[in-house]
Fold this sequence. Notes:
Blueprint: H1 9-13, H2 19-43, H3 50-53, E1 60-65, E2 71-73, E3 87-91, H4 93-99, H5 102-106, E4 137-139, H6 141-146, E5 151-156, H7 166-179, E6 184-188, H8 192-203, E7 207-213, H9 218-226, E8 230-234, H10 238-252, E9 255-256, H11 265-279, E10 287-291, H12 296-310, E11 320-326, H13 331-338, H14 364-373, E12 377-381, H15 383-397, H16 403-417, E13 426-431
Helix pairs in contact: 7-8, 7-11, 8-9, 11-12, 15-16
Amino acid sequence: MNGRDAAPGLVALRGSSSGAMRRMKRTWVTGLxxxxxxKKREEEPMHDNDNLxxxxxxxxxHLECAMEGDHYAADQVHNLxxxxxxLLVRYDLAGVxxxxxxxxxxxxxxxxWRYRELLPVRKCKDIVSLxxxxxxxxxxxxxxxxxxxxxxxxxxxxxxxxxxxxxRGLVMAVSMGKALGIKHMAMPTNGNxxxxxxxxxTSCGIKTTIFCPADTPEVNVSxxxxxxxxxxxxxxxxxxxxxIVGEGKxxxxxxxxxxxxxxxxxxxxxxxxxxxxxxxxWDVPDVIFYPTGGGTGLIGMWKAFDELEKIxxxxxxxxxxxxxxxxxxxxxxxxxxxxxxxxxxxxxxxTIASGIRVPQAIGDFLILRAVRxxxxxxxxxxxxxxxxxxxxxxxxxxxxxxxxxxxxxxxYKDSLxxxxxxxxxxxxxxxxxxxxxxPLPPVTxxxxxxxxxxYTQF
Length: 458
Ligand SMILES: *Cc1c(COP(=O)(O)O)cnc(C)c1O
């Protein structure tokens, strides 16, 4: 009983006799102890790991094809639906509404597991955590002022384990993998997802095999291998790597953990939406700029807002969702402009923002749907703009973004200039990884301590 006092009812029951009686009493005693434990816990001070150790009711009812709407059983291993489309996890939201209050949430430690009632993991023992902190909202007041007073907020996801928001998705995929008895996970990655998968899978003893494009940043390839995976550089793009994973499914028996071919990464990424709404006092920003590759985060947040409204935590207001891509790889922007439901593959994709170099996304229709329903838009920025945006925010606000995060700032500036967002809009930019994971510009300035120093230069 974890060092806590024994339940008072227990002593009085010792020494009872007949089998049936004993069983009845045992059930009654167990119930009593559970009640007592819960009460004690409520009265006790909060512990840092409460969200990982206190069992909470869960509400998953089934999974649903995002295209056709047909249902699939919960608590079983799934990849895509029969139609070959992503599966979305559905909850008994009326049940969640009864079980969860804003006040109860406020009593819990600050990490993504505080939203357990809206997450798929049933049992604490399956949670594979490496410290998924609540990520801060960082205001950019100087830049806001420069552009006429709008509030610019950066949600800095670089603070998460493995230095990127891929941790949110993969901690959920791996926890569910553990719960469902998966032993070997494989994945195509541009770097950050592979690193997060490797870390979480290794921490719970699941084997991982990871394929990345040959020019994936060195730090990603190293961290993946160091965190216990076997990683291969492949002479192709992420979707070429995905084909290898798909083909190996039958031959090796590994689980295909590709973006949106696995149902739970969205649920992890969804916590960005839950978290930002709670951080804003159960409100949403006017516009969200999201650097879009496979789109898991954008789709996940859109789902989060819907669920939050259904449990009565927010109203019907939605942020306009803006999908930001690099001009060297902008399939969603092309499809948005063309007014199509799906996006065709982008050939010869190139950009310094490797996390959004995704030529083809299986969730294309979900990204485009969220963008259109929210009255947002899709926008591309080139690598020069991304680099100068990164410089500007670092030099003027002291915040180092990753190139993908910098792309959202560049897109914000362009959208202000062409009137697609207004000066008064409260905007949220997503910085999805720590800028420290990427090659940084060299500094060549030196100082010779053996020569006279000209102090007027400083
Ligand atoms: C994966 C990634 C993205 C794109 O996220 P999706 O939700 O897959 O669209 C953006 N930035 C970084 C740094 C990433 O690692």
